[in-house]
């Protein structure tokens, strides 16, 4: 049987949907249509000399150990990199492994990082607890305040970290403006782009140096597997990220990479349908007297609506509602839902409701929650693929229980 055959590099002129289906394919000698799943820990060499050479420098289609690389994982890395417009990518075991790997691989004691304050709870933990434990100085700012970024970024700042759309309050950061400030001092701009999705955001074109995704969310899109990816220049991915991750063990499993490859094929269709429904739901719910506020970047009432309209094609798949009456009212709302599932994931085909103050952000002190806008009544809604009319009826039934 002949060895693996790699399709020629997908031209950038091809559309996103084409790249999401075809980029990075490696076919075995059998010529399979669906990508092959290589469930193997190691690889066989024809000779001791070949093994020596491969450990010295493995080629594009040469692998030594699954923690270092795998054909199925490499297909996923090349496909998402082609979709994002990045030179390369490194797939990780989870989204948080991607955030941790992107930061820890490049920072050392004495370095300075500036980060937006509104972040997912685990991202805050890495910045507040892990990095500072190893001597990295971290300054937090209001991500929507360019003056605050300007005051915090200084000569010698090593990195800037932000969520392009904050979790769960959906603040939208003016990435090009922040990136320009960071470039002025030579800082690396690292963007967690999960809420914006690879469909609606072009973070690298807008000034990001490094983009991280939790592939667990929209890329899988069906709640099946964990995964993450770090995207950037080939030098950053292979010379900075890869040595750190291959030795610390944060690599993606081949099976999960295969699931993510299949998810990428339908991601564009799924995310566009979900965002369309999210917009309709936000418009229908805004002004309901049982809600103190409805947060969605696609609404003109959103504080950063103009920024979102400039940077993103749509407002995304997630909206947040603040139920009047606090936690007790929010719990009554959640417990009355039938179609929408109570869970803590997002980007799924199933609509999911989350109470951040008691789940994803529960470890934060009350004053920090208040500063971030995570009120006792806040509910995050990840919109799925159900019939929009059914979702609206379900949400209204939940509000009737308030």
Protein model, in words:
- This protein is α/β, with parallel strands linked by helices and 402 residues long.
- 39% of the residues lie in helices and 15% in strands.
- It contains 14 helices and 14 strands.
- A seven-stranded mixed beta sheet has the order 3-9-8-7-6-4-5, with helices on both faces. Strands 10-11-14-13-12 form a five-stranded mixed beta sheet.
- β6 (157-163), α7 (175-183) and β7 (188-192) form a beta-alpha-beta unit.
- The longest helix is centred in the C-terminal third of the chain and has 32 residues, at 254-285.
- It is globular, with a radius of gyration of 22 Å.
- The termini are far apart.
- 49% of the residues are buried.
| Total count of helical runs of at least 4 residues | 14
Please summarize the sheet with the most strands: 7 strands, mixed
At the fourth level of CATH, the homologous superfamily of the domain at 267-401 is Aspartate Aminotransferase, domain 1
CATH architecture of the domain at 267-401: Alpha-Beta Complex
Radius of gyration: 22 Å
Strand content: 15-25%
| Residue-averaged pLDDT | 95
Q: What is the CATH C-level name of the domain at 267-401?
A: Alpha Beta
Order of helical and strand elements: EHEHHEHEHEHEHEHEEHHEHEHEEHEH
CATH topology of the domain at 267-401: Aspartate Aminotransferase, domain 1
Strand order of the largest sheet: 3-9-8-7-6-4-5
What global shape is seen?
A: globular
Uncertain runs? none
Distance between the termini: 65 Å
Would you tell me the structural class of the helices and strands?
alpha/beta
The overall strand count is 14
Question: Into which percent range does the helicity of residues fall?
Answer: 25-40%
